[in-house]
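Thread: Newbie trying to understand structure tokens

Hi all, I'm a second-year student working on a class project, and my supervisor (Dr. K.) asked me to get a predicted structure for one chain before our next meeting. I've only ever worked with sequences, so writing a 3D structure as a token string is new to me. If someone could post the tokens and maybe explain what I'm looking at, I'd be very grateful. Here's the chain:
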Amino acid sequence: MKANYHTHTWRCGHASGTEREYIEKAIQEGFEVLGFSDHVPQAYPKNYTSPIRMSIEQIPDYTRTLVELREEYRDQIQILIGYEVEFSHEYFQGTMDAIREAELDYIILGQHFASNEIDGSYVGGPTSDERILGQYVDITIEGMQTGLFTYLAHPDLINFWGDEDAYERQMTRLIEAANALGMPMEVNMYGFYDKRHYPCDRFWNLASAMKAKTVIGCDAHFPGLVTQPEKVPGLMDFLQKHSIAVGDNLFSINNPK
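---
Reply by user tm_fold:
Sure, no problem. This is what the structure looks like when written as tokens:
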């Protein structure tokens, strides 16, 4: 694997390590491209502070740090500057306006809420509510259809344990939309490393059968996870089971400017 586009920094409040440590580890692991995509600072009301993402005031420091390191390491690795963005009707445009003012190479869609962080539902928590499942699929498809995103991160993050037919019906809708747009969906290494409920067999059974485009994302929240898939116990067996090839993981990125 020559590229990883899913890397966080300490600014999100739940990751550790310096940007330099991530870069050095990527070089050690043989990566040619390392994309930073920390949790985007949303244009939330001033009376709300997100516990899981950087603030808008941190954009200049994030950008300056990565620009300087991009120049320093230019002969060893390509550094890309991006964000993992949450789509919502209420805050997306303001968020994009803020991050477009700085250096920006790409964004990935990481939908954690249906439909937003402030008054929506976190979809990573267990739920049997088909309404939340449908909202997650609806808002994710809307995000993909903007045409601004390079790929869909952890599409199986939603932790739905209700009616299995409802899950298959809604996730089929999601995969169909991604296929129609030619958008890759991510097999998330962090979820596998951390033994989370994703990546999950039932989603990737569907995605594989529907010949979905895939990408592998380290989702590195600490430098050690900038690594090759074969070093994550059990991951290669999972990929083989679902006929997912590792490949070089290189592809064209969408510049959202």
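A couple of things are worth pointing out once you decode it. The helical segments are 19-28, 59-72, 92-99, 130-144, 164-181, 189-193, 201-209, 235-241. The radius of gyration is 17 Å. Feel free to ask follow-ups in this thread.
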